[in-house]
Specification:
3 domains, six-stranded antiparallel beta sheet, two-stranded antiparallel sheet, globular
């Protein structure tokens, strides 16, 4: 059996792996080795590496909302756990070393959270100085050391920049709204790569500082859906006086640069740039234009997540009624409604959406926010699928399926 989603792993009735999507296969390849299977009911199975036998899993979970990581980190601080907190979110990976209820070190693969970007945004380096340091950088000489050797900054300023970097990585991690996290503790004596420098930033203090960021980001998202939106100047922008900190942003507002583009040019992060965009929006200096182009990767991710819901509905119906015509019912309904503009000819017999065909339709949809329009269409499809399933299922099976589907759809709405 071949999986229909990139991140799906198919396990047969005998416990054998029958198929894996490209994403799942890449994950398994990276985790090659011996693992202990930890089953938490039928819905959750964890694989814990045992070939090195050097770690203990203290905590793991799924990020369901903007408060998930805040609550998890608070619990870690109160329990005084020591170890490594790893946070996987769409497009990012961050790791933190925690000891004595304090943050000791942080690592991130996000461009805006690199030390050089932090030093430029903090006014410690100019973009030109950073570019010169990057040219000389190598595995033996880091950006900070080169900048200090060249006289661009002092040792004290470098330490301040490293502290700023750790704080930025932590604060940006806390505003993630989807993904997974795990807290691991290495056994005493286990070989672990130690950081060049240890900080000691109390977690509770960092959490208190981050509350405002989380609340502000929630407010920003009411008017600025995501970082792919493109701001455009209004006529009013030419008639009002702007604060100096807003001038660099305004200089890049042309209807073509997205918020993420602007952040990259300014060596800033998404939060700080979104905050300035929100200020300009508040005074009427800009308007938000629909994102410049369809984010195909995001569309495919949304379809893959909804396919998990649709496939569960079809599998449940088929289990109770082998001759079910739910596929024909849904396909006919799609053709007779406005959903044909999204899914005509895209519904597979097993109930999932052909992502390639749906993406072709989506490119032709006249919508200001195509991803949101796709999500709405998928919600309607899932709702009608549940209504159709209800007429073929026993009452208890219908209640169980309805509860599961509602949970998954709620999760998807929060994303």
């Amino acid at each position: 059996m071949r999986p229909h989603n990139d991140d799906v792993l198919v396990i047969g009735s005998e416990g054998d792996i029958e198929g894996a999507g490209a994403g799942a296969k890449a994950t398994l390849t990276a985790a090659a080795g011996s693992h202990r299977v930890m089953a938490l009911g039928k819905e959750l199975v964890l694989l814990h590496r045992v070939d090195a036998n050097d770690t203990q899993l203290l905590l793991a979970g799924e990020i369901l909302s903007r408060t998930t990581l805040m609550e998890a980190t608070s619990m870690i601080a109160q329990a005084q756990w020591e170890g490594e907190l790893e946070i996987h979110a769409p497009g990012s990976l961050r790791r933190f070393r925690i000891a004595d209820s304090a943050l000791c070190d942080a690592w991130s693969n996000v461009l805006s959270e690199r030390l050089g970007e932090v030093m430029v945004s903090g006014g410690l380096l100019t973009p030109d100085q950073l570019a010169r340091c990057v040219l000389e950088a190598n595995p033996k000489r880091r950006i900070g050391e080169i900048a200090m050797d060249r006289g661009f900054l002092t040792q004290e300023q470098l330490f301040s920049a490293l502290r700023m970097q750790v704080q930025r990585i932590f604060q940006n991690a806390l505003i993630e709204e989807s993904g997974h996290y795990a807290m691991l503790r290495r056994r005493e004596g286990a070989d672990a790569s130690a950081p060049m420098l240890f900080m000691h930033l109390p977690l509770q203090g960092l959490l208190m500082q981050s509350v405002q960021r989380i609340d502000e980001m929630a407010l920003f998202r009411e008017r600025i859906p995501n970082g792919h939106c493109c701001p455009v100047l209004t006529a009013r922008a030419m008639r009002i006086s702007l604060a100096g900190s807003l001038h660099p942003v305004v200089a890049l507002v042309d209807g073509e640069h997205s918020i993420l583009d602007i952040a990259k040019v300014l060596h800033s992060d998404e939060y700080q740039t979104t905050k300035r965009i929100a200020q300009l929006l508040q005074i009427g200096a800009i308007e938000i234009k629909a994102q410049r182009k369809l984010d195909e990767a995001e569309a495919l991710r949304v379809i893959a997540r909804f396919n998990q819901v649709l496939r569960r509905i079809f599998e449940t119906v088929t289990r109770y009624d082998k001759k079910s015509d739910i596929h024909w019912t849904l396909d006919a309904w799609i053709r007779d409604t406005e959903l044909r503009t999204f899914f005509e000819g895209a519904l597979r017999p097993e109930g999932t959406i052909d992502a390639t065909r749906a993406l072709q339709h989506l490119k032709k949809v006249d919508a200001e926010r195509p991803i949101e329009a796709l999500q709405q269409a998928l919600h309607e499809l899932a709702g009608f699928a549940m209504l159709s399933a209800g007429s073929t299922l026993p009452r208890e099976a219908e209640r169980t399926l309805s509860h599961l589907v509602n949970q998954k759809l709620t999760h998807l709405r929060r994303e």
